[in-house]
Amino acid sequence: MSRRSLWRWVFVLWSLATLCAMFLRPVTPIDETRYLTVAWEMRLAGDPWLPMLNGVPYSDKPPLLFWLINAGWSVFGVNDLWPRLLTATFGLGVVLLTARCAVLLCTDGHNVAPVAALALTATPLWLLFNGAVMFDVPLTFFSLAAVALVIDMRGEGRRSQWVLVGLMLGLGMLTKGPTVLLHALPLALLAPLWKDALEQERRLSPTGDDGGGTANWWPWYRGVLLAFVTGVLVLATWLGPV
Predict the structure, then answer these.
(1) Nearest to 18 by CA among 102, 90, 72
(2) Backbone phi, psi, residue 210, to 5°
(3) Is 78 within a domain?
């Protein structure tokens, strides 16, 4: 099967899963109904920053998903379709980022990428969570985005790349707390165990892309620190006003 055919099946499966989530599956208790209630009470209270449940601040989850739900409601009106389309869009992003990681990690990455994307899209667990009004898929998106950015760096990485990694970490923390750090930071901190081998493979690849080794790791770890600080500053955009 050609790459184009594989990608066509990826988008067909995603579209079917999204349509089923939006129009056939009801909002399920306890989690989905609770999260939609929190977003609705924020709207009723007129507070764009602080999640509310039963008239009191809701501290179980950070606010990013609630912010995005309310942003869509401001445009499309209050409905239960937008929140599902929102998380399904993050689900499609997860599929594309999985393909991107395949390109970065595999010698024959451009052929492996659509296979990896289709394998994920056909997974029952992904089909179940795609379109669910929950935090797991957006968290996976920001975690994979940070991971892909770290893998894609050449040498010590540019400052702008590390700031972008920090932005993904910060948005991940605004989605589901510091869990995102468990996925991305170990990869960056343990770079001496994998990065030189990956860049050597890139130098030997048919593209002739010279990764440029990383003999001195201090600039790299300064970048990791910059990403962490950037992530904390992004999180502070919510903690400050609250």
Answers:
(1) 90
(2) -90, 110
(3) no
Query: Residue 22 corresponds to which tokens in the numbers above?
Result: 């939006």
Place 7 in a pLDDT band, splitting at 50, 70 and 90.
very high
Domain assignment of residue 40, yes or no: no
Per-residue model confidence as pLDDT tens digits over 91-142: 999 999 999 999 999 888 889 999 999 999 999 989 888 999 999 999 999 9
> CA 12, CA 191: separation in Å to the nearest integer?
37
pLDDT digit string (tens) for 136-192? Answer: 999 999 999 999 999 999 888 899 999 999 999 999 999 999 999 999 999 999 998
In a domain, 177, yes or no: yes
Give the domain extent around 228: 135-242
Report cis status (omega within 30 of 0) of the bond before 69: no
| Phi, psi for 139 (deg, rounded to 5) | -60, -45
> Cα(122)–Cα(10) distance, rounded to whole angstroms?
8
Q: How many structural domains compose the chain? A: 1
The terminus-to-terminus CA distance of the chain in angstroms comes to 53
**CB neighbour list of residue 73: distance below 8 Å, 6 or more residues apart:** 39, 43, 79, 82
Instruction: Find, among 85, 70, 72, the residue nearest to 21 by Cα.
Output: 85
Strands 56-57 and 52-53 turn out to be antiparallel
Cα 226 from Cα 220, distance rounded (Å):
10
State how far the Cα of 58 lies from the Cα of 50, in Å rounded to an integer. 8
The pLDDT assigned to 49 comes to 86
The per-residue pLDDT for range 37-73, each reduced to its tens digit, is 999 999 999 888 899 999 899 989 999 999 999 999 9
